[in-house]
Task: inverse folding
């Protein structure tokens, strides 16, 4: 069991090291990264099966017992997310090989990608608050270099905003962690959960909860801290946007889920009302931004923000069915968002840009690409029977059951506007005739781009299949999400697994 | 590179072995006393950086023999490998393993915490030099 839980961190680390050693040989780097991500995916599935059968799995690094050593914990949520990270990592590696320019690909892209995945998996698995902070920093370092790799002006500008806001978030996270340690004397999450529940000064705990909310909200791009995300995610090459969109902001949501289902649950009337209000504001801000934009990846970036709102709303409702909806939505969104950014990348490859005003005629020219885009777009907008529909349906039902009518009203309007912003891309880039003076690549340049775009369709097709599968297997996956929610709502399982009943 | 000064060049030639030995000394005493792979790596990086300053980064790279990036990769592998040793022969990842036979005259006992530190040493050395050389060659 120890080995199993260490592997999702060890595999990307070893792959990063090996790809660094093979810095000169691009083919070997690609093969190594592919093998690494594939094994990560397999490990994720094995952990998931293990957790499903035997309950929460725990490993103590270094062999030091729980509240003192560093604990790795895998419950259903962690296992699901590690698996999703494996899927995204694998698709990204393949997409990179087919789409990224050689100069960037050579400049340590694969080591960085693997370090990023190590940070992501580490965050999902760690059972220690400080270790979570370390994993966030690992992610931040790798993501900052990935964001600015190539060093164009727009990238540096976006990277600066990204870096500053994330550093502020880290500082707040560290402060909150320090204060919490001062109050309860532990950093082990399971131990914290027990101590916080018994802590006499609830005012202090509410304050700390809000500090963590700000820290993780910044990472997750929650209102009012979302503006850095649409300002930076469209600047790097599409493959980098894709892996950021799929995984990075989701780590912030994961941290919120962990914190507010396990650690700060004593004062739900306060904390979760704040969460609900912010979730609704996030949805509105994100979707209004998406409606106003005219570039594909900018629209998609704003939609990340609004989907973060949906996820946090699921957390705020805090019922079994709402959390299950959030987990389902999380899985669906990781796959679909990554895929949409891949598709934006393919379009940019073909046309050289993603500006809707100057695009057009893709439906006539590229029917396969159009259908693939349509599947992901409709899934994101929540059209049945695709995966996004089930996710939203469950969340709405949870809202009705909890009698959160105003939140549900907002969510429905936001869902409609999301559909509108997706149809905007569809109408302007695919359906509209190509503008008469449209710039087109010619000769050899065109052939090269066509070839690379055709190959880059491979991971797109794979992720579309996953999306459709999530939609059609909604039943079993929802069962799993329900079981996950049950685990989240009963932190005592987690606490007993980590501390072994002794506290 | 501009013409380097004779004073710096001569001093570097004398300092290089001293600094390198000192960095190894720091690495070795790190387990129980102040020191360790991180500072050791930095001191070693300082030694090579001095060579790069006086004789140019090309010469420093030749003396180092290994590419800095590759050194980082190797270091990561050594560090991760030390953790795996604990997983295989002990009870947990990163658990300290001190085999009885692993004893060297000057260095003392050798265990996985030491090899982990060696990995850190390599990573820090590789990282610092990669940054420094790149900045120098950029000029």
Result:
């Amino acid at each position: 069991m120890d080995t199993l839980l260490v592997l999702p961190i060890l595999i990307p680390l070893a792959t990063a090291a090996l790809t660094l050693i093979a810095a000169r040989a691009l083919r070997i780097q690609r093969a190594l990264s592919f093998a690494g991500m594939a094994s990560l995916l397999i490990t994720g599935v094995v952990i998931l099966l293990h957790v499903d059968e035997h309950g929460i799995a725990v490993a103590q690094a270094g062999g030091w017992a729980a509240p003192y050593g560093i604990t790795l914990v895998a419950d259903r949520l962690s296992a699901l997310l590690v698996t999703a990270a494996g899927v995204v990592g694998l698709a990204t590696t393949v997409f990179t090989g087919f789409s990224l320019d050689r100069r960037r690909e050579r400049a340590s892209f694969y080591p960085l990608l693997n370090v990023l995945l190590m940070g992501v998996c580490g965050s999902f698995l760690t059972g220690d608050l400080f270790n979570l902070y370390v994993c966030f920093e690992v992610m931040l370092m790798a993501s900052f270099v990935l964001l600015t790799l190539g060093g164009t002006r727009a990238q540096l500008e976006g990277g600066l905003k990204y870096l500053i806001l994330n550093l502020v978030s880290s500082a707040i996270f560290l402060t909150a962690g320090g204060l919490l340690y001062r109050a309860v004397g532990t950093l082990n999450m399971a131990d914290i959960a027990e101590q916080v529940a018994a802590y006499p000064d609830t005012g202090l705990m509410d304050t700390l909860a809000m500090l963590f909310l700000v820290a993780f909200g910044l990472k997750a791009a929650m209102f009012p801290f979302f503006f850095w995300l649409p300002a930076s995610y469209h600047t790097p090459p599409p493959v980098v946007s894709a892996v950021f969109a799929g995984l990075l902001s989701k780590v912030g949501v994961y941290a919120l889920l962990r914190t507010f289902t396990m650690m700060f649950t004593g004062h739900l009337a306060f904390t979760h009302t704040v969460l609900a209000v912010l979730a609704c504001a996030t949805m509105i801000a994100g979707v209004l931004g998406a409606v106003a934009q005219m570039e594909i990846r900018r629209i998609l970036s704003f939609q990340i923000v609004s989907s973060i709102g949906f996820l946090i709303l699921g957390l705020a409702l805090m019922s079994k069915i709402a959390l299950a909806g959030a987990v389902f939505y999380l899985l669906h969104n990781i796959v679909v968002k990554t895929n949409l950014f891949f598709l934006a990348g393919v379009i940019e490859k073909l046309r050289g840009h993603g500006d809707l005003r100057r695009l057009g005629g893709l439906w006539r020219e590229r029917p396969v690409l159009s259908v693939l885009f349509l599947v992901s777009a409709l899934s994101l907008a929540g059209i049945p029977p695709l995966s996004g529909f089930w996710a939203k349906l469950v969340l709405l039902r949870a809202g009705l059951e909890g009698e959160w009518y105003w939140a549900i009203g907002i969510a429905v309007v936001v869902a409609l506007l999301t559909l509108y912003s997706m149809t905007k891309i569809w109408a302007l880039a695919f359906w509209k005739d190509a503008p008469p003076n449209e710039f087109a690549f010619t000769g050899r340049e065109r052939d090269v781009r066509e070839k690379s775009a055709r190959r880059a369709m491979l991971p797109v097709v794979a992720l579309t299949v996953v999306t459709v599968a999530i939609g059609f297997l909604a039943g079993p996956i929802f069962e799993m999400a329900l079981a996950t929610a049950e685990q989240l709502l009963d932190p005592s399982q987690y606490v007993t697994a980590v501390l072994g009943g002794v506290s | 590179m501009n013409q380097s000064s004779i004073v710096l060049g001569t001093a570097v030639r004398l300092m290089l072995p001293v600094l390198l030995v000192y960095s190894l000394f720091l690495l070795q005493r790190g387990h129980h006393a102040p020191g360790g792979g991180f500072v050791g790596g930095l001191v070693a990086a300082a030694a090579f950086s001095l060579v790069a300053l006086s004789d140019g980064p090309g010469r420093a790279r030749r003396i180092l023999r290994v590419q800095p990036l590759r050194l980082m990769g190797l270091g990561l592998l050594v560090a991760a490998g030390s953790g795996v040793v604990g997983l295989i022969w002990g009870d947990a990842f990163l658990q300290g393993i001190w085999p009885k036979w692993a004893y060297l005259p000057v260095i003392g006992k050798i265990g996985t915490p030491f090899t982990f530190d060696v990995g850190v040493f390599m990573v820090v050395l590789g990282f610092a030099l990669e940054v420094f050389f790149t900045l120098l060659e950029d000029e």
